[in-house]
Amino acid sequence: MASANDTRQAPKDAADQNFDYMFKLLIIGNSSVGKTSFLFRYADDSFTSAFVSTVGIDFKVKTKLVSLEIHISTNFKVRDVT
After folding, report:
1. Helix (H, G, I), strand (E, B) or coil at 56
2. Can you give the residue range of the structural domain that contains 75?
3. What is the C-alpha separation between 6 and 81, in angstroms, rounded?
4. How many domains does the chain have?
5. Going by fewer Cβ within 10 Å, which terminus of the chain is more open, N or C?
6. Which PANTHER family does the UniProt entry name for this protein (predicted)?
7. What are phi and psi of 10, to 5 degrees?
8. Residue 75 lies in a domain
9. CA distance 22 to 72
10. Between 6 and 50, whose confidence is greater?
11. Is residue 82 within 8 Å of residue 55, measured between CB atoms?
12. Beta bridge partners of 78
């Protein structure tokens, strides 16, 4: 059992740290305009017309390799806010 003074933290997943740059995008707008559809299309390449209104915040994370003159791994955190 961990004590109240225990400062150990759970190890982070290696996939969460395997990138060169992190970008965070916050999608805001009026209700029922397609913010969640945009989020799912970008992150999962999927679409459904049967979404329920988002309550609070929903997010997806996508790691993508961008080919320039050098290879850079980027991590995009996209948040859908009501």
Report:
1. coil
2. 15-81
3. 34
4. 1
5. N
6. LD44762P
7. -65, 140
8. yes
9. 11
10. 50
11. yes
12. 25, 60
Inter-residue contact 59 to 79 (CB < 8 Å): yes
Residues in the chain: 82
**Amino acid (one-letter) located at 74:** T
5 falls within a domain = no
**pLDDT tens digits, 25-69:** 888 888 888 888 888 888 888 887 776 777 777 777 777 776 667
Whole-structure pTM value: 0.53
22: CATH: 3.40.50.300
The upper half-sphere exposure of residue 45, i.e. CA atoms within 13 Å in the direction of its Cβ, equals 1
Buried b (16+ CB within 10 A) or exposed e, 19-30: beeeeeeebeee
The tokens describing 31, both together, are 């209700």
C-alpha span between 44 and 68 (Å, rounded): 24
